[in-house]
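In this supplementary section we document a worked example of the pipeline. Step one takes a protein sequence of length 334 as its only input; no multiple sequence alignment statistics are reported here. Step two produces a three-dimensional model, which step three serialises into structure tokens for compact storage. The input and output of this example are shown verbatim.
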Amino acid sequence: MPPPIPPPVPRLSDVARAAGTSPITASRALRAPDQVAPATRARVEAAARALGYVPNLLAGALASARTHTVGVLVPTIASSIFAATINGLTSVLEEAGFAILLAQSGYDPAREARGLAALLGHRPEGVVCIGAPLSPASAAMLAAARRAGTAVVETWEIPDAPIGAAVGFDNHAVGRAVAAHFAAAGRRRLVFAGGTDPRAAARSAGFAAGARDAGLPAPARLRLPVPAAMDNATEACRTDPRLATADAVFAATDIHAMGLLTGFRALGRAVPDAVAVVGLGDLDLARHTQPALSSVRIDGDAIGRRAAALILEGGGDPPPRIDLGFTLIARASG
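The serialised model returned by step three reads:
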């Protein structure tokens, strides 16, 4: 028996016929509803719903050079640390009628370049990167896209020479602030625990600089796999001797910090009496760990909303570098 013939895809002319209007009026009712009488608009919208009609946005893009899409390149969606930024982005852009195309780099420069090429192939009107590009190839693609009119916004850091606009915070200053916090509490044997991505590297460098300013020994640098996972940090407590002697640890993310809390508890190292722990991200769970986790609060939602506003403005002229700052929230973990 031959396979069943699929039903035809509803066309705009079908919607117009069902609503008793011309195709031009039906198109205007769906794309510019304020220009159509409310009764007519209601008939067209009802017909579109009944038929399951979806506007062909690509056809409109070819005619108007607008795709109403924004590409978002994110290191990972496996960790919740970037979720607030993506939520802020989508809440603003979707309200403005834009669709989001998402790609993950997995902290891998080659994968990032492939994902970015796929995003740009859809001719988005803007690209938002969480972090600066990891490779010259990605940077070159973004620069070329910006020259062609695509708005580009880098977030979660503020590069000295961003490709377009930048919205984020100073990762180096975060590290300095945490080191000063530990020094004020009398801690001396410091460890930085985190991945090798550029943002973690900047936090580690700032942490070392802050320790040096306070007259403390140079912090140890414990490298953990990315994306962040609690198990990796917990296992490091058991296997890395530097964590056995540290009296303060700055973890590059709350995920790693929570893993450290678990690992220290298993070893009988009391937090914060024997060792203090500070994370980054101030995730909701940070307030409910035992003990409650001290963390650097980043307003990810505000970063996303500001980045979205810049995309809607075409990237800004000239493209701004916006520092939204951070707040160190001291809780029971030290």
